[in-house]
């Protein structure tokens, strides 16, 4: 079985190579220049360009043709495909995949992760593990539905700068937030990104993240916890240490947040999924 996803998954390259995952890239426009995510723009280059720009980057879903090319490649090699993609509530990526499926035909299953970044990436990794164990596509999809339902994704925003650039927050609200050191925490709910709470100061926000993990009352010993960061590796590693100390999960995966989700989170943002 060929597992396919898109570049918003933020999985490390060693994982992508290990499980032979095919990745369909999204596109990014920064200051009038177009880039292909992960092809001619690294995450580090993206953050440098985004920081230097007064305009929020624009991301674009892959074309159906991009999926067609990859689907044909996957079918030729494995005969059946499971494509797990960015939330349909955040992007038209799943629609492009569905259009490509109708044009290619064959054994292709499209699964809407209702998530992004490692919220998507961990679903892809789960599918890879199950495929290696010999599970059928139907059984993997049913398991992914359960996993998707159980998954919690929380995002800490260090700054509202990109929310202001994107017109979602007024400059006045940004000034007030900075004045009182208010830090928004958002989460993914039913595929949408929604504000969960606003807390005062980064330390309190980090405590809140850990408290929310504790409130889930799950056994982390057999779970992978994912952390993606927007150019703030040191903070991500500190959070990883705290999570290991408090919950002893099976693994904590730390990687950079790519342009697709990082555009909205902004520099200093942290995403935790489990």
UniProtKB/TrEMBL annotation:
The keyword Coiled coil is assigned to this record: yes
UniProt feature coiled coil, ranges: 196-223
UniProt-recorded Gene Ontology molecular function terms: lipid binding
UniProt xrefs under PROSITE patterns: DEGV
Alphabetized InterPro entries for the sequence: DegV (IPR003797), DegV_C (IPR043168), DegV_domain_contain (IPR050270)
Gene3D superfamilies: 3.30.1180.10, 3.40.50.10170
Keywords: Coiled coil, Lipid-binding
Cited PANTHER family: DEGV DOMAIN-CONTAINING PROTEIN DR_1986-RELATED, FATTY ACID-BINDING PROTEIN TM_1468
Protein name per UniProt: EDD domain protein, DegV family
